[in-house]
Amino acid sequence: MHQEIDNAYGVTLQRYRLGEALAHLGELERAAELLERARDEFAADGRTRLTGRAEFALGGVYARLGRGEEAGARYRAALEGTRAVRGVRDEARVLDALAELAASLGEEREAEEHRTAARELWERLGLAGAGSDR
Fold this sequence. Notes:
The protein is mainly α.
């Protein structure tokens, strides 16, 4: 439908959502392709918040694929984007994901730094005890 009415933003948004859905279903390679493309299109459009969210989703897919270095790079890019738009909830989610990734790689000191930073943000939002599922 979005293609038919020449709505490029709508097409990109649906691509992003389909990538998230495929990731949820475990179709990680296809999810990565769609999320990479959506991320690039959001960035080209100057949509910082959505670029960050696509980076976050892509980081999760890479982590599940066992591509820890790439996951970390995507999460760090997402963190930069969330801070640029002052998306505190998104920032806390990214920090939780970075903590989980660092812990899975045996980097417990880094994991604890991220956990502490995320916890402070969740508390500031009045969501003490919240995690990356929020």
